[in-house]
Amino acid sequence: MDLQSLLQWLYDTPVGTAIRENGNLFPMVESIHVLSITLVVGSISIVDLRLLGIASKGRAVSRLTGEVLPFTWVVFVAAAITGGLLFSSNAVKYAHNGFFLAKMSLLVVAFLNMMVFHVITSRGIERWDESPHPPVQAKLAGAVSLALWIAIIVCGRWIGFTMSAF
Amino acid sequence: MTLHGFAEWLGQTPASQVVQNVSWIIPSVQCFHILCIAIVVSAVFMVDLRLLGVIGRDQPTAAYTSRFLTWVWPTLVLLLLSGSVLIVGEPTRSLENPAFLTKMTLLVFAMITTAGLQIPTFKDPAYWELTRGHRISARALAVISLLLWVGIVFAGRWIAYMNTAGE
């Protein structure tokens, strides 16, 4: 099955069809998507601002990530599921939308940035866990993450303006 | 002047014409608006999750209200400003829209709830832990606050779909 027929199959699934044709279903799923995305970006920003030495400076980095990131993953799963549902409603068109492709690429980069932080940067975390000013590599991870997630929101909003009247 | 008359008048002002005619203004302001919403909703959620005992039990609730709720009020100002640009650009689409009116009503209650959670901790940081009654009230307020902010995000998105102005 090539990509084009896979997209067409998604478009034709009962779920994709229902979201496309039922006037209330699309905005409903979209509202949950927007809520989840705002919580994903907001909660990640809490960690990013801590890494940058801007906020939550009195809280150990490991404590903060321990309380924030599980919540981030829950809302991320909600964002991914609702995003997938929205995608299925118009799969072929979304797959050819530049802002959609940019958003997905930025998501991959944000994921890689997070992995680099977890695997490499946070290795010596005991040395700066309590410090209000983490080392420059950690600050860089926070700044890159913040910039990527802002760009992801911007691309997401622009998908709406380049797909339809909304 | 009726609300409809006001919306019509606003739509004719030079400022409104600029927002209407420069195509990138509305999407850009909406992006900024969503980012501010992300800050406010996430900050409030952190406090609510703490009040509900889901996170941060090793720290008093006042540590959370002081860390997070301080972000809410300045960001709300930015939301009101960016929201105003959107209203100026599309007055009839917003002001006469039931979703918009719902959003503003929920916002008033959300602000009262947020202030209600924050103000008692100024006098006594341990306020929400003082008695069993206080702890129960804090949890109730946290649930109400969560529902209100979720409602605000939903109503906000529905403005685009309950457009009664018939463009």
Low-confidence stretches of chain A: none
How many beta-strand runs of chain B?
0
Low-confidence stretches of chain B: none
Residue share in β-strands of chain A = under 5%
In sequence order, what are the helices and strands of chain A, one letter per element? Answer: HHHHHHH
Radius of gyration of chain A, in angstroms, nearest whole number: 18 Å
The share of residues in extended strands of chain B comes to under 5%
Structural descriptors:
heterodimer, A: 166 residues, mainly alpha, 7 helices, B: 167 residues, 79% helix, elongated
Give structural notes.
- The complex is a heterodimer of chains A (166) and B (167).
- Chain A contains seven helices and no strands.
- With 166 residues, chain A is mainly α.
- Chain A has one domain.
- The two termini of chain A are 32 Å apart.
- Chain B is mostly helical.
- Chain B has one domain.
- Chain B has helices spanning 3-12, 14-21, 25-51, 61-89, 91-95, 98-123, 132-158.
- The longest helix of chain B is centred in the middle third of the chain and has 29 residues, at 61-89.
- The mean pLDDT of chain B is 94.
- The A-B interface holds A 23, 27, 30-31, 34-35, 37-39, 41-43, 45-46, 55-56, 58-59, 63, 67-68, 71, 150, 153-154, 157-158, 161, 166 and B 27, 30-31, 34-35, 37-39, 41-43, 45-46, 49, 55-56, 58-59, 63, 67, 71, 150, 153-154, 156-158, 160-161.
